[in-house]
Structure formats: C-alpha cells, structure tokens
Amino acid sequence: MIQKISRNFFSSLSNNKVLNKGARRWGLKLGASKVVAGLTVESAIEKIKDLNDSGRMVTLDHLGEFVSDEQEAREALQESLHTLDVLHEHGVHCTLSVKLTKLGLDVDEALCWQQISTLCEHAANYGNTINIDMENYARYDQTLEFLRALRKTYDNVGTVLQSYLHRGIADTEQLAGIPLRIVKGAYKESPTVAYQDKTDIDENFVKMVQTHLRNESYTAIGTHDHKIIAEIKAFTEKNHIPREMFEFQMLYGFRDDLQQTLVDEGYRFRTYVPFGHDWYGYFMRRLAERPQNVTFALRGMFSK
Questions:
Q1: How confident is the model at residue 30, as a pLDDT?
Q2: Alpha helices by DSSP H, the chain
Q3: What DSSP letter does each residue of 132-157 carry, written as one string?
Q4: Of 3, 1, 2, 64, nearest to 289 (Cα)?
Q5: For residue 111, which phi and psi values (nearest 5 degrees)?
Q6: Residue 51: CB partners within 8 Å, gap ≥ 6?
Q7: What residue segments make up the domains of the chain, in order of their start?
Q8: Least confident of 13-22, 42-51, 119-128, 260-269
C-alpha cells in the first residue's frame, strides 16, 4: 500500500507544470545530479566518454516532453540537431533518444513529422541512430504510426515498448525486424490498458524480449532487475542467440556495479543518459518507480 501511494504521489508530481517550470530555476538539485548527466550536451560529454572508456555504449536523452508551444518545439529540434553534431565531433559511441511531444506532437502532427524526419536524416548523415521514446498511452498509437511511416525511408530509427501494457506482446510481434527497447513502463496508466501488478509486468517483459529475439530482431533489454537479467541470459544461451543481437540497458546513476559486470562478462551494454533543463518530470518518475529511489535522492541532496 505504501509503495502504491508513493508511486501515485510522485507520478502526479511529474505532471505538475508549475513545479516543472520552477525546477528550471533550481538546477540539478534534490539529488537529480545523481541521475541526470548535466544541463547541456557539453556538460554531459565527459561522462559519456567515461562510460565509453569503461566499455559501455550510451544513448543520450535530451529531456523534455509535452511541449505545447510551436516555437519551443522548433527550438527543441535545433537543440537535438546540435546534440548530434557534438556527439559526432567527439567521436563517442552514443545514439540519441527523443520524445515526439518534445518535437511538437501535441502542437501539430505535420510539424512533428517534419521535425522527426529532419532529425532522422541528420543522424543518418553521421551514421547514427534515433530512438523514439515511448510516452504515456494517450500518445501510444501516434508514436507507432510515426515509427512505421519513418521506417519506409529511414532504417536508423526504432522505438520503445512497455511491458505493463496488455498489448505488449501483440505489438512486439507486429514490429518484428525493427530495433526495439523493451522496458517495464514509468507512466501511471489505467487498469483497462495496463497491468498493475509487478509480477504480471515482469512476466510480460520477459515474454516480449523472448518474442523479439525469436523473431531475429535486435533487442535492447532495459531493466535493473538481476533476476530478469539472469533469465534472459539463460534463454539466449539455450537458444543460441548471438550476443550481437541484443544489449542490456540501464539508467545512468543506477546499479553501476551491475552495469560493469555485464560489460566484463562480454555482453553488449548501453547506459541511458539523460541531460537537459527539463529534468523534473524524468526525476519524479524515477522516484515513483521504487521507494528506494527516494532514499537515493535524499542522499544526493545532503551529500553536496
């Protein structure tokens, strides 16, 4: 019960626009600097290099979502293009993750289409990849429609599927051949569309990963759960799935020891590294996921 209250509390805070605006003035306080690499790509680049040096690939997330202003959406594109430029200039092994609402999905679909197409084209010129982050269920079908349309022109774009959704397996089957990141899901969703019990979510997660791998499709396995990781490792070994077909992923600032262990064991590994001024919603969802993360954040506050 306490865990459910905590999740609901922090999930509601993540959508508070007043607090989100205030967070821009706070900087990376409240422990956020432990899980957000910096406010600009320039401030995050050394951390990306350190991760690369340790054997970890990176996907960089320029934080921000639910943009409702056209000018802000256009500025977001320019910032993302600049991010790709900086990644290329420094020669780091790092892809870019982006949310469609940051590029104007809620403002105008045509604008968003133009912007995400421009971003995919720019990334392709550098031999880089764009991963479209999945957002809440209200934008789910739109995101998949954009992905399918983009894949007709660009093979350097993939997306994320969430195992707390009832339709997770069906959508995994339909997206065979497309690179997918499988995660559990961090938004508060209705029981009509999403599992509410952790056991159901975990079971669906494993099934989705196994389904995509059986379909010979590249799979990013986004979890910090060592039991699930052990199960996936056993599955890939039993079914002779080459390690080049999948990678494990974890969030920046979490379980660094396990991240490095997987690298040392010879698995492909990618750290999801967020940066940017719009860190508040991301940080609140991390607190909502597990009560232990609140203690983690408090340690960050008082260790300055």
A1: 57
A2: 2-14, 17-26, 41-53, 70-90, 109-125, 140-150, 168-174, 198-214, 226-238, 256-264, 280-289, 292-302
A3: E----GGGHHHHHHHHHHHTTT-SSE
A4: 3
A5: -60, -45
A6: 57, 58, 271, 273
A7: 37-278
A8: 13-22
β-partners of residue 182 are: 161, 221
Beta-carbon contacts of 155 under 8 Å, excluding residues fewer than 6 positions away, are: none
Q: Which residue has the tokens 């690179």?
A: 179
Q: Can you tell me which residue has the tokens 């739109």?
A: 142
DSSP 3-state assignment of 304? coil
Binding site residues for substrate, as ranges? 99, 285-286
Known binding-site residue numbers for FAD: 134, 162, 184-186, 198, 223-224
Query: What secondary structure letter does DSSP report for 165?
Result: B
Task: Say whether pLDDT at 301 is over 50.
Answer: no
CATH architecture of 37-278: Alpha-Beta Barrel (3.20)
Residues with active-site annotation: 133, 181
Q: How far apart are CA 294 and CA 50, in angstroms?
A: 26
Residue pair 44/38 in contact by the 8 Å Cβ criterion: yes
Question: Collapsing DSSP states into helix, strand and coil, what is residue 211?
Answer: helix
Known binding residues are: 99, 134, 162, 184-186, 198, 223-224, 285-286
- Residue-wise pLDDT tens digits, 182-226: 999 988 899 999 999 999 999 999 999 999 999 999 999 999 999
Mean pLDDT score, 258-286:
89
